[in-house]
Amino acid sequence: MKRFATSLLAVAALAALTPLAAHAQAAGGKIKVGLMLPYTGTFAALGTAIENGFRMYVQEQGGKLGGREIEFVKVDDESDPAKATDNVNKLIKRDNVDVLVGTVHSGVAMAMAKVAKDTGTLLIVPNAGADAVTGPMCAPNIFRSSFSNWQPGFAMGEVVAQRGHKRVVTITWKYAAGDESVRGFREAFEKRGGQIVKELNLPFPNVEFQALLTEIAATKPDAVYTFFAGGGAVKFVKDYAAAGLKGRIPLYGAGFLTDGTLQAQGADAEGLMTTLHYADSLNTPRDNAFRLNYAKAFKLQPDVYAVQGYDAAQMLGIGLNAVKGDVSKKAEFAAALRKARIDSPRGPFTLSASHNPVQDIYLRQVVGKENRSVSVATKALADPGRGCRM
Ligand code: BEZ
What we know:
Structural class: alpha/beta
Number of helices: 13
Shape: globular
Radius of gyration: 20 Å
Bound molecules: benzoic acid
Helix content: 40-55%
Number of strands: 14
Strand content: 15-25%
Order of helices and strands: HHEHEEHEHEEHEHEHEHEHEHHHEEE
Distance between the termini: 12 Å
Largest sheet: 8 strands, mixed
């Protein structure tokens, strides 16, 4: 309670320091949303799905949130951390956006969070799991509609241990998302007596897996844990099978390994088990309606990224409704989200004190073109929010 009151004071102080964006204050004026997402490179499809989901929710509300029309400005961040600060500054200073929505890549998201924190601009992160965003970099004006990298990794550490595997090799891209996913896995797996015998890495977005797959074959672990996503995940699953490892050494992953990728992975993905906060077969009225509307609108099946984009828009709507469209009322905006129960297609979730979803993590298995829910691996899993002081 004391921490919550302190947070609200911090937001009020921040709001007083932030110049009011005149364009957003004009009664009835549009709210400008800056979409900073990857539209090229290995995460391009993820960026498009997030935008689709976001726009679909706004459309369902008649094009308005909190009584204000929504206008979009877009930038392709190319999943390139070196360009991130310039890109986000352009959105804030040149385009005068009221709200930032982005992004997919953890390194880019950390640059966005720094600028958002320094300027007090509202930021909703619709994918990137960088633990720091809702850890040491947390702020009253920063929210996440997706997950922390720790969450699916931790849930899978428990599953792999429960399935009796003792010696595991991990393989991932060497950047925040891969490192933190493996760290989450390690925390749960070692607690239950497992051992990580080798951590293999390659630079993002490299997909030359051959030498590392040869090393896995030589190490002969009980199982492999991995974090890859987008185009890289497609190639990894296909190369794992082509190297003759599928069926010999069980492959587990954070669910990005098989989400939005099954069409391209084909039979090589069949049977893979992953952990994630969404699955294709939840069969709830909320998810069925979402999936039907998405398929009609975009002629595509939705994936976890579409859900996260949709929920980012829902979260913006909840905040804007509470302040009647006045984005300068940051304390009230934050207070509304902190007590909200977000009615997501994934199942309802709340936000932790550090503004990360507290959510069920599903154990899924690939059956045909679906990530089918096997069970809830971990109920209402909250990221520890280590280092967050609001
Ligand atoms: C990340 O960089 O945080 C990330 C990218 C793709 C999928 C999941 C996480």
